[in-house]
Design goal:
heterodimer, A: about 300 residues, mainly alpha, 16 helices, about 75% helix, B: about 300 residues, MetI-like fold, 2 domains, 14 helices, globular
Chain lengths: ~300, ~300
């Protein structure tokens, strides 16, 4: 198609006009152009009705500055911000770091490593909700599996994981989050490692780089971009993670372990103030906008596809 | 100098073997730790599901009187909170099916238009999809709830299908465009010269060649719909329109929670995605890492 339009570029005014139209339609003719438009309509419809409209409506709901003043003076909101930052910084980075190390482990040869990998990805394959409910029960002070094991091993009573201390509860949320999400990122990083040509390792070995030095000088420089993109993506996904905090700690004890995603829903539906909930969510924009811009740039230019 | 090397040489071999055994042992130890870490919550699920109700509230580490009664109660809807279990399961399946179908249809159509027909300004749509992919779904829940009431879709499974399709299509567009680049455009052109209309090219050439990507994205969309909770919780309120996760989560904070039935329900609900995941594992991982690390 491109060659045809190149031939047809004329010098006359009509030709120029035609070529302008052509370039706008990118060489598509009448009915073809109509088809191309028609094929886009369903997606454009979905995008306008279920993305643009909710976003604009949300911005309108949260436009009143007084809401933000109220939030900033709310001690629950202050705690929520601290929790969210801890959740993002600790949860995402610990998870990604271990995923990076474990992806190296799963590069080992042998049938049992393959088998282990099949089991290891289970937390990701099993739906989130059933496992979160299971973990919630495991952490029950009196009858949960964790405290039962602690009793069997050490004959001491385990702590009340979810209902006594903010830090234990938040820690439980973060550990659950790591349990659920680490396999996914391990698989991604493993694929990244497998894409590194084997010759590079052979060359490195000839030059005497083995073990940790091979990792530092060969694997990591090649994985660094992927690792960065994964970390940024994971940060955004985690910011919107509602299920983990909601099902493990439920925001308790005493509303001290909410994160922004759960606080927004609580404000909107439990205390019936949707504007306040939207404002809580919108207060994440200063973090989200730079992340989105950076990621859009990264995902388009470096061809890392997730 | 030469004395040192001759002395060092024979010592090196056993040293190396010792180190080899050391790393193997460390690897095995790590494997055991990983197994316990991974399986503990799943074991807990199975253990509680196998216990009779009276044994749930004990400090057992394994079921004292294992039985399949809880599963039987679940599949026969023999407990008051399970009275619509199969109906709710059918709702989940219905949502999953339509999410997969519509995601594949809408995603492949727009990708065909952008990637194959080369519609001008197609990059705008690609960017719109990319941005949707990066907006956390839970952040839109509050306006979405209001809007769905406005559309008259409150307490209707189609509101859920709309949500899942909205958040699955951006990923579909990505994968389809990436995968489509590997299919030569000459194929389309040859068909066009032979007189095929765009819609014939779409059905007879584009879709069959995209089959692997369709499988990957379809699996992704199904798991997304199966995993999603927040919107189903907010938008579905009656027992008959609810899905399994919403019904399951109702009792998490009550003191009387029938944990053994809940865990049995959870297991029955988890089986399809796990089976599908393992069936299409290779495809899906390839889809998720398409492109991998380039440059």
């Amino acid at each position: 198609m491109a060659s045809v339009s190149a031939v047809e570029v004329g010098r006359s005014a009509a030709g120029r006009r035609r070529s302008f139209l052509r370039s706008w339609r990118a060489g598509l003719q009448g009915s073809e152009y109509a088809w191309a438009i028609a094929f886009c309509i369903p997606y454009v419809g979905v995008f306008l009705a279920f993305v643009v409209y909710p976003v604009l409506y949300g911005l309108w709901l949260g436009h009143n500055p007084a809401l933000y003043v109220e939030l900033v003076h709310d001690p629950i909101y202050q705690e929520t911000i601290v929790n969210t930052i801890i959740y993002l910084v600790v949860g995402v980075n610990v998870k990604m770091f271990f995923a990076l190390l474990l992806s190296g482990f799963f590069m080992r040869k042998g049938w049992w490593v393959k088998g282990l990998l099949m089991i290891y990805v289970l937390p990701w394959a099993v739906p989130a909700l059933p496992t979160f409910i299971s973990i919630h029960w495991m952490l029950n002070t009196q009858w949960g599996l964790v405290n039962n094991v602690i009793w069997e091993l050490f004959h001491v009573d385990g702590p009340g994981w979810l209902d006594t201390s903010r830090w234990l509860a938040l820690g439980s949320v973060i550990v659950t989050y790591i349990w659920k999400n680490m396999p996914f990122w391990t698989v991604i990083l493993l694929a990244g490692r497998m894409a590194i040509p084997h010759e590079l390792y052979e060359a490195a070995e000839v030059d005497g780089a083995t073990g940790i030095r091979r990792f530092l000088h060969v694997s990591f420089p090649l994985l660094a971009n992927l690792y960065l993109v994964c970390t940024l993506l994971s940060t955004i996904f985690t910011l919107g993670d509602f299920n983990t905090a909601y099902f493990i700690s439920g925001g308790g004890p005493a509303l001290s372990t909410h994160v922004l995603a759960t606080l927004g829903i609580r404000d909107a539906f439990e205390i019936a103030r949707p504007e306040l909930g939207v404002a809580a969510v919108l207060s994440a924009l200063p973090l989200m906008i730079p992340l989105v811009i950076l990621l859009m740039h990264k995902l388009r230019t470096s061809e890392v596809q997730l | 100098m030469s004395a040192i090397t001759t002395q060092a040489a024979p010592r090196r071999a056993p040293n190396y073997r010792l180190r080899h055994i050391g790393t193997e042992a460390a690897a095995l130890l790590l494997a055991v730790v990983l197994l316990i870490w991974t399986l503990a919550p799943l074991y807990n699920m199975l253990m509680v599901a196998l216990e009779p109700h009276s044994d749930v509230f004990t400090s057992n580490l394994w079921p004292a009187h294992p039985s399949l009664d809880s599963f039987w109660i679940v599949v026969t809807e023999g407990y008051w909170y399970l009275e619509y279990f199969w109906h709710q399961y059918a709702n989940s399946l219905y949502i999953g099916f339509w999410t997969v179908f519509l995601t594949l249809l809408i995603g492949s159509m727009v990708s065909y238009s952008i990637g194959r027909m080369r519609i001008k300004h197609g990059w705008l749509l690609t960017n719109a999809a990319l941005m949707t992919y990066l907006v956390p779904a839970s952040f839109l829940a509050i306006p979405f709830y209001r809007i769905m009431q406005g559309y008259g879709l409150g307490n209707n499974v189609w509101s859920i299908i709309a949500v899942e399709v909205t958040f699955a299509t951006p990923y579909a567009i990505f994968i389809f465009q990436q995968y489509g680049r590997g299919i030569p455009l000459e194929l389309d052109e040859a068909a066009r010269i032979d007189g095929a209309s765009p819609i014939q090219v779409y059905f007879r050439i584009y879709l069959p060649l995209m089959a692997p990507a369709l499988v990957a994205v379809g699996t992704y969309a199904l798991l997304l719909a199966w995993n999603e909770y927040l919107y189903q919780f907010l938008l579905l309120s009656s027992k008959r329109s609810m899905t399994v996760p919403v019904a399951l989560a109702q009792f998490i904070n009550s003191d009387e929670s029938p944990w053994n039935y809940m865990m049995a329900t959870a297991i029955v609900y988890s089986v399809p995605p796990v089976v599908i995941y393992y069936l299409f594992r290779g495809r899906m991982t390839a889809g998720l890492t398409m492109g991998g690390v380039k440059g």
